[in-house]
């Protein structure tokens, strides 16, 4: 019996050691920005209207989208933030848990950690608005509240890789 357990343990260890981890891919969106997307997220559709990037993993229930709004002479970053936040504040159980001013690769921005309900599922979201030279950018990443402790750091790492070109 001990021999069978030892062989099973050895087989599982060998299998787990041979799993390949796909390195992040640097994605370039037009001539605006780059961002590093981990290999466990795949392109998706219909997550967010007019998004530049839509990636997710339905097994892990992790999703990521990014949009841009080209700057004009009358671009107002505060109005951009208000418009972005207004998309979700009518959701059930909406709550801004944390708000921070940040700099992402030299660009000023604001991050919001949100909780809300969507189709009876409690969601955790990180919504970031960045004021670039060429455009204002919005990055939205989310998962279920159950996954938030495991996935939040990974989502923040993706967001931190944002660079305007």
Automatic annotation (TrEMBL):
Write down the SUPFAM superfamilies for this protein, in alphabetical order.
Mog1p/PsbP-like
Keywords linked to the UniProt accession: Signal
| Keyword Signal carried by entry | yes
State the Pfam families in the record. Answer: DcrB
InterPro entries named in the record: DcrB/EagT6, Mog1/PsbP_a/b/a-sand
State the superkingdom.
Bacteria
- Signal sequence annotation: 1-19
Write the protein's name.
DUF1795 domain-containing protein
